[in-house]
Amino acid sequence: MKGAETLSAAEQARTKVQKPKFAKTEKTPVEPVDPDALIEVQHLTKRYGDLVVLDDISEKVYPGEKVAIIGPSGGGKSTFLRCLNVLEDPTDGYVFFEGNNLCDLKVDINLQRRRMGMVFQQFNLFNNMNVLDNITLAPIHVAMQDIRRARFRQVFHKKGDSEKQNTAPEVEIRSKKQVKEEAEARAMQLLSRIGLADKAKVYPSTLSGGQRQRIAIVRALAMNPKVMLFDEPTSALDPEMVGEVLALIKELADEGMTMVIVTHEMGFAREVATRVLFMAGGKIAEQGPPAQIFGAPQNERLREFLSKVL
Ligand SMILES: Nc1ncnc2c1ncn2[C@@H]1O[C@H](COP(=O)(O)OP(=O)(O)OP(=O)(O)O)[C@@H](O)[C@H]1O
Ligand SMILES: [Mg+2]
């Protein structure tokens, strides 16, 4: 116990994560069952005290899918999305991303999260940094981290290392200056794409909500994610700016980006989603293609919900 008492806060947090709270039971296999799924959730449960927010959800997202999550306030949509990249620790169950169990302590969660772009309602840009620095911060950081790891491997390479999960990808060793230049070139490309190249050196506070949200999306794209997770990306925007953000998301969808998007924009869900999940009371109460969900809803709660929002 003495050892535990002297742990630093960071170590305690890590110890907490390492606690084997995911009890092995018959209903929770520890392997992904579907090798084709990009994300696979098994028996995901999230409780806050006595409140069950996610109730034993099993679901998969396949490459190229555009999954819209709709449902009443408090139904668990944000919690579900946050559990997908383990921003929220599941109380029970597993989340697999590209076959890696994100709830397993052997898996480097930061390495996995790089490939999951997340965009929130409230932009979450760093207000003390200009636009370009906002976009390049993470790519520069991870590139330098990979280079440090690669250098370390060069020096201490042992046979069998490659069998370890999540060893950083092979990278070319470059100087920080080169890394920064590459990241900035890519950021400028992305900014040009959304017509905001001239805003590279300004601070977020000088931009409109729509511009800030498009920059938040581009910042996530700068990491070359395999999937984008959006939590109500337009609900904090003035109505006239909703269109420009949805247009960008639709463009990404059309290019084949896999996405999971929590939205109250039913028209958008109907047009862009390949599958709609209706979440209520911590469960996926109904799901299906948009035509079925909006045209022929079966679940009573879904019908009631649609009668209010459509
Ligand atoms: N950190 C927390 N502590 C306690 N309860 C929480 C916490 N986060 C969420 N909840 C509760 O979990 C439930 C689901 O919340 P969640 O934010 O996932 O809902 P939602 O479907 O995204 O709702 P909305 O449409 O309003 O965004 C709510 O009852 C909420 O109060
Ligand atoms: Mg929410």
Structure characterization notes:
With 310 residues, the chain is α/β, with parallel strands linked by helices. It is 40% helix and 19% strand. It is built from eleven helices and ten strands. The strands form two sheets. A six-stranded mixed beta sheet has the order 6-7-8-3-9-10, sandwiched between helices. Helix 5 packs parallel to helix 7. Adenosine-5'-triphosphate (ATP) binds next to strand 2 and helix 3.
Distance between the termini: 58 Å
Main β-sheet: number of strands, strand sense, barrel status? 6 strands, mixed
Order of helices and strands: HHEEEHEEHEHHHEHEHEEHH
Number of helical segments with 4 or more residues: 11
Shape: globular
Helix content: 25-40%
Q: Enumerate the spans where pLDDT stays under 50 for 5 or more consecutive residues.
A: 1-7, 9-28
| Radius of gyration based on Cα positions | 21 Å
- The tally of beta strands, per DSSP, is 10
The fraction of residues in strands falls at 15-25%
The helix/strand class is alpha/beta
Mean pLDDT: 88
Which strand order spans the largest sheet, edge to edge or round the barrel?
A: 6-7-8-3-9-10
